[in-house]
Amino acid sequence: MDHLDLDQRTTLGKPGTGYSAVDQQPPDGDRGLWAAFAEAATTEAFCQSWLALQCRMIDGVSGGLVLLGPPDRGSFSAAAVWPEARQSLQYLTATAKQALSERRGLLLRREPGGPDGGPSRERYEVAYPIEVAGRLHGVIVLDVVPRPEPQLQAVLRRLHWGAAWLEVLFRREEAARDEAAKGRLQMVLDLAATTVSHERFSGAAMAFVTALATRLECDRASIGFVRAGRVQVRAVSHSAHFGKQTNLIRAIGNAMDEALDQQGTIVHPAPRDGPPRVTRAHMELARQHGSGAICSIPLSHGDRLVGALTLERPGDRPFDPPTVELCEAVAAVAGPVLEIQRRDDRWLATKAVETCRTWLARLIGPHYVALKLAVVGAAAVVLFFAGATGDFRVSATTTLEPEIRRAAVAPFNGYIAEARVRAGDLVRQGQVLCALDDREMRLERLKWLSQHEQLVKQYRQAMAKRDAAQVTILTAQIDQAKAQLSLLEDQLSRTRVLAPFNGVVVTGDLSQMLGSPVERGQVLFEVAPLDAYRVILQVDERDVADVAVGQKGQLLLSAFPEVPLPFRVEKITPVSTAQEGRNYFRVEAQLESTPERLRPGMEGVGKVEVGRRLLVWIWTRQVIDWVRLKLWTWMP
Questions:
Q1: Angle CA(32)–CA(161)–CA(136) in degrees, nearest 5?
Q2: What band does 86 get if pLDDT is binned at 50, 70 and 90?
Q3: Residue 558 has what DSSP assignment?
């Protein structure tokens, strides 16, 4: 079997080829076919008349076949057969399959009595796929008698030109489908837009069902939402007010319940090819109120059915599948919007009750394992903290102060001659802290010694002369000289400032003031002992009421926070100081032990042990107290 391929996409349809899909002047015998071709209302009629015209235009065609099917999906079946529909052209299917798989035109020569079961004569099979916008819709296959190769190529070209009519057909059908889809989509959007043009749910529902009844030419459209397990009708088209207990409203509600119970659309009368449905309530509605055709569609929001939409028409205009599909699309878009508006339009108390009911149902119902575990965990935490207690301790900034602070002052006016220590140095009792310049006092002492000796000589001479008056004067002057000498001896003994006891120099640094003058009584150094401290706690005024004398606590210093120091509260001063916008009371405590590493002025955090309290109270007491004060402030 010979195999001829032709790249018709690059060579066909060019000017000057001399071929066209149809002749300009059809013979009189073809006028009926052209009339049928022009008036074809279905795809099958169009293809049948087109195939007949095509086969009559091409000489030597023994049979023709047009296979169509869903684009790119198959399966493809015969849409037109020539010359007779009853003629079997099964032998052409092999060529059709090859053209479909290769998606190109084929010319195949077949030998007489071939394996395909065709006629016992030599023939050619011409196949051309019908491809529109890259999608394969079918294939055309012709059985032609042998002829020279140029004429065979002309057959393929003529078939290519003629296939353009089928391409136009499919494009028209696709455009018609797109236009219909756009019209349905526009209607869906227009109807959905009526639900958002009103602020209140009642107005939105009324406008929606009225517009739906008008656009779909329904006698009545009703919408209802689930309440307490049953559907309650909330709006009826063209009716601003309606009695909720009337027979009509009850019948419509029953029809809606029937649709929700079956979780699907119910059409009455039921279509023959539709799924089996129970339509008792719909039949009763039609019987009592003369509704010839009824369609009920459930409304869903998320994974829940929240209501239903019921449409009623006269019996001569039943709900066909396209209309039902349109109604389902409208319900799918407008249903969630109306449900949200309905939920938002309720009273706050109703919202709260329904929310509680929803969470309770999730809690005690199936599923929602994570929620159940979270609630159990929260309940366990609440029960634990309802009875759990802990040590309540009042925290405060703490400073170490020495119990004794002895000042070393200048004994007289003078100048600093020597400075041996400064702040932070450890000293022992009697150790020299500094020395004052004593040169002037020593010269003054020599002066008074010399004067004393002169007065003693004069006194002796007066005694020898027995001059009583002079003796009395000289005796007084000698006593004055002795007093001055005693004063100078005392001052000279105090030129060296000594440490009063073993301790540490807290303040004072004279190393940069050598030779500087000092005045009598001026503080030169302060010395504190190393074994006697008091703990000063700055307690917030909000906590001072919980602190009492005798309570114990612990102190952690910044210098060595790894060692807690126990203390005992000794005194609470009634005077507060303001720091950083808060008031603090000074609380004094005594350390139970005094490590050697302690130094005056060290700071840390101390906690006074008050007693056992509930953990919840410990963590929330400050917030509760703040709320109480604010409420007291706002209350008249």
A1: 105
A2: low
A3: S
Q: What pLDDT band is residue 413 in, cutting at 50, 70 and 90? A: confident
Spatial separation of the C-alpha atoms in residues 283 and 294, rounded to whole Å: 9
pLDDT above 50: residue 20: no
Radius of gyration of the chain (CA): 58
Q: Which of 26, 22, 33 is nearest to 80 (CA)?
A: 33
Rounded to 10 degrees, the C-alpha dihedral 476/482/483/484 comes to 110
What is the arrangement of strands in the sheet containing 517-518, beginning at the earlier edge strand?
496-498, 432-436, 414-419, 517-518
What strands, in cross-sheet order, belong to the sheet with 523-528? 406-409, 523-528, 503-507, 426-427
Architecture of domain 406-526: Beta Barrel (2.40)
Contact 533, 606 (CB under 8 A): no
| DSSP letters spanning 376-391 | HHHHHHHHHHHH-EEE
CA distance 556 to 288: 90
- CATH 3.30.450.40 is held by the domain 3-176: yes
3-state SS, residue 216: coil
Domain ranges of the chain: 3-176, 197-345, 406-526, 532-634
Phi, psi of 60 (to 5 degrees): 75, 25
Query: How far is the CA of 146 from the CAs of 59, 149, 153, 401, in angstroms?
Result: 11, 9, 12, 125
User: Looking at residues 539-545, what average pLDDT do you find?
Assistant: 90
Amino acid at 340: I
Token couple for 416: 């600093």
Position 556 scores a pLDDT of 92
Q: Would the pTM of this model clear 0.90, i.e. be above it?
A: no
Helix (H) or strand (E) holding 636: none
- C-alpha 264/C-alpha 249 separation (Å) is 21
- Domain 532-634: which topology? Elongation Factor Tu (Ef-tu); domain 3 (2.40.30)
Tokens 């296939």 label which residue?
Answer: 163
* C-alpha distances out from residue 289 to 271, 421, 515, 542, 618, Å: 21, 116, 124, 78, 71
What is the distance, to the nearest Å, from the Cα of residue 445 to the centroid of all Cα atoms in its chain?
93
Q: Which residues pair with 307 in a beta bridge?
A: 225, 299
The set of residues, in sequence order, having a beta carbon less than 8 Å from that of 411 and lying 6+ positions away, is: 436, 491, 494, 495, 497, 520
Do the domains spanning 3-176 and 532-634 agree at the CATH topology level? no
Closest CA to 162 of 304, 262, 276, 12: 12
Instruction: Return the higher-pLDDT residue of 170 and 559.
Output: 559
Question: Is the CATH code 3.30.450.40 the one for domain 197-345?
Answer: yes
Q: How far is CA 68 from the centre of its chain?
A: 53
E strands present in 10-55: none
| Cα distance between residue 186 and residue 392, in whole Å | 70
In the prediction, which pLDDT does 11 show?
Answer: 29
Mind listing the pLDDT tens digit for each residue in 104-153? 888 887 777 655 566 667 788 888 888 887 788 888 888 888 888 888 88
